[in-house]
Amino acid sequence: MNDEKTKMMKSIESISDITHESVASTEEVSASAQQQLAGINKVSVMANELKASAKTLKDEVVKFKI
């Protein structure tokens, strides 16, 4: 009976360890995803600024066409 109890406890401890590792991995993935999202948002802002600059440049070039 004690042998079965010991096996059961080791199995529960193993499951607990795996769960903790899974939580840590999930937190790392979440942090990476947040960093990627921040990068994507920054690229989006820069793309909008580039679009506005391109429009301004286009408007100025039109003035010089003969």
Write up this protein.
This protein has one helix spanning 2-64. With 66 residues, it is mostly helical. The protein has one domain (1-66). The longest helix is centred in the middle third of the chain and has 63 residues, at 2-64. It has one helix and no strands. This is Methyl-accepting chemotaxis protein. It comes from Peptoclostridium litorale DSM 5388.
For this entry, what is the oligomeric state of its chains? single chain
What is the typical, i.e. mean, pLDDT? 95
Largest beta sheet, briefly?
Answer: none
What is the N-to-C succession of helices and strands?
A: H
How much helix is in the residues?
over 70%
Attribute tags:
66 residues; mainly alpha; Methyl-accepting chemotaxis protein
Care to give the gist of this entry?
It comes from Peptoclostridium litorale DSM 5388. With 66 residues, the protein is mainly α.
Write the layout of secondary structure elements.
Blueprint: H1 2-64
